[in-house]
């Protein structure tokens, strides 16, 4: 154990120094030998480390989303070169190089946090064995061995025997109850963190083996935490539980404010953003402008949630700009499901309903107009009215009017056997 501690001495000394500095602050408030002073020192160490790891966490998010985007291409390469593993690896590396993606970037926060975890483990293990480590001297060692968190010593483990626990000034029942509760809380927080990632922040339009792996890890990690947790001191469990809770809260913030495109979280976020932008008629924060800018730059490659967002702005005469701002506009073009812009048809105006008095007055006016039209038709023309017919045509027209019409209103037809035209008179001898 001394050999392993010496290997981590480059990080053990800084970690122990940070814990001692926080202990000196909290010791003035809660007392130097209390579990609150030492426990809050460990919690503060976790928060300090996680704040320093935020840039790596941002890189992890970008790397994870880039890997999700490349999953369809990776699947094609695996199917194409499934019998040639070497060519498959070469094509994978070529794809990573062309896209600028590093598969190890998603593990950066875990890798960067591991040295601090091992250093804290060795510091607490030194407290449990009664040996000084780092900047922790004999007086600080005696104070730490007296510290109890809910009745469990800081250096006690779930697997410790009754004699060792009694040497630390506690009972075996208190140690196992406290450590069991902390292990369950640690595993539950890990499970919930992974579950909200899979159910809310995964692109549901892409089905890849990567999603199946994540689902498997959702159940594997909590079991691993439970198995390893029984061998860790209470102080390490405090560290691990705190970092899990921090990760859960940090991920909830990212899912709510910067979700993965195509996920359920993005649909909920764009719905909130639509209400906010239509109410204020502008984007007010840098994050909102970044989201709108990314949506506008996609063009026809937008997913259904992003097209719905653009169409919602268009319906209220708002236009999203390339820089992420939103301005007033008169555009009526909306996007269909395939991303093709179409013109929205204007809404049909329904006529206003008239009152009973208005309908009666309109009907009376229509009746009066019909009576006036009938009177005008029955009125005879006077001799002073001009005729459109020429003078020479009047006698012929009058004679035509005076000629008798055939009975029954039918035209006269020539008898059968007779030719048309004037007929010669019959001879009397043939009579």
Report what the structure shows.
With 431 residues, the protein is mainly alpha-helical. It has 16 helices and six strands. The protein has helices at residues 2-7, 9-30, 35-52, 54-80, 85-99, 108-129, 138-146, 162-167, 172-200, 209-229, 234-257, 264-280, 286-298, 304-315, 356-378, 393-402, and strands spanning 148-149, 152-153, 318-320, 326-328, 333-335, 341-343. A two-stranded antiparallel sheet has the order 1-2. The chain has a two-stranded antiparallel ribbon with strand order 3-4. The chain is elongated. It starts with a helix and ends in a 29-residue tail after the last helix.
Unreliably modeled segments: 381-403, 405-417
Q: What is the strand tally?
A: 6
Number of helices: 16
Instruction: Calculate Rg over CA atoms.
Output: 46 Å
Mean pLDDT: 76
How would a crystallographer describe the biggest sheet?
2 strands, antiparallel
Side by side, the strands of the main sheet go 1-2
Amount of helix: 55-70%
Outline type: elongated
CA-CA gap between termini: 158 Å
> What is the H/E order?
HHHHHHHEEHHHHHHHEEEEHH
Question: What features would you highlight for this structure?
Answer:
431 residues; mainly alpha; two-stranded antiparallel ribbon
Break the fold down into its secondary structure elements and pairings:
Blueprint: H1 2-7, H2 9-30, H3 35-52, H4 54-80, H5 85-99, H6 108-129, H7 138-146, E1 148-149, E2 152-153, H8 162-167, H9 172-200, H10 209-229, H11 234-257, H12 264-280, H13 286-298, H14 304-315, E3 318-320, E4 326-328, E5 333-335, E6 341-343, H15 356-378, H16 393-402
Antiparallel strand pairs: 1-2, 3-4, 5-6
């Amino acid at each position: 154990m001394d050999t392993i501690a010496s290997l981590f001495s480059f990080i053990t000394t800084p970690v122990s120094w940070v814990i001692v500095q926080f202990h000196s602050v909290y010791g003035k408030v809660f007392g130097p030998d209390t579990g609150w002073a030492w426990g809050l020192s460990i919690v503060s160490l976790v928060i300090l480390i996680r704040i320093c790891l935020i840039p790596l966490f941002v890189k992890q998010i970008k790397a994870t989303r880039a890997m999700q985007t490349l999953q369809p291409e990776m699947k094609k390469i695996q199917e194409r070169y499934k019998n040639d593993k070497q060519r498959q690896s070469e094509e994978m590396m070529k794809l990573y190089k062309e896209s600028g993606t590093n598969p190890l970037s998603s593990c950066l926060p875990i890798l960067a946090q591991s040295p601090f975890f091992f250093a804290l483990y060795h510091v607490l293990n030194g407290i449990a064995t009664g040996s000084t480590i780092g900047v922790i001297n004999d007086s600080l060692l005696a104070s730490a061995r007296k510290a109890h968190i809910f009745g469990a010593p800081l250096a006690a483990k779930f697997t410790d025997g009754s004699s060792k626990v009694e040497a630390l000034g506690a009972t075996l029942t208190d140690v196992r109850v406290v450590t069991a509760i902390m292990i369950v809380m640690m595993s539950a927080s890990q499970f919930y963190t992974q579950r909200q990632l899979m159910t809310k922040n995964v692109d549901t339009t892409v089905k890849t083996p990567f999603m199946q792996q994540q689902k498997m890890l959702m159940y594997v990690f909590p079991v691993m935490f439970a198995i390893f947790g029984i061998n860790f001191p209470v102080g390490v469990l405090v560290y691990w539980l705190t970092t899990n809770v921090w990760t859960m809260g940090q991920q909830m913030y990212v899912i709510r404010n910067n979700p993965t495109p195509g996920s359920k979280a993005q649909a909920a976020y764009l719905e909130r953003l639509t209400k906010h932008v239509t109410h204020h008629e502008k984007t007010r924060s840098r994050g909102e402008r970044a989201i709108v800018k990314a949506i506008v730059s996609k063009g026809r490659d937008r997913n259904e949630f992003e097209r719905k967002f653009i169409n919602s702005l268009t319906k209220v005469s708002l236009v999203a700009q390339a820089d992420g701002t939103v301005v007033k506009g008169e555009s009526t073009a909306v996007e269909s499901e395939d991303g093709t812009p179409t013109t929205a048809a204007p809404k049909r105006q329904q006529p206003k309903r008239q009152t009973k008095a208005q309908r009666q007055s309109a009907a009376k006016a229509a009746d009066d107009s019909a009576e006036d039209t009938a009177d005008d038709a029955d009125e005879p023309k006077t001799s002073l009215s001009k005729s459109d017919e020429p003078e020479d045509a009047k006698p012929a027209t009058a004679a035509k009017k005076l000629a008798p019409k055939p009975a029954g209103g039918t035209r006269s037809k020539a008898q059968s056997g007779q030719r048309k035209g004037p007929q010669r008179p019959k001879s009397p001898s043939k009579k």
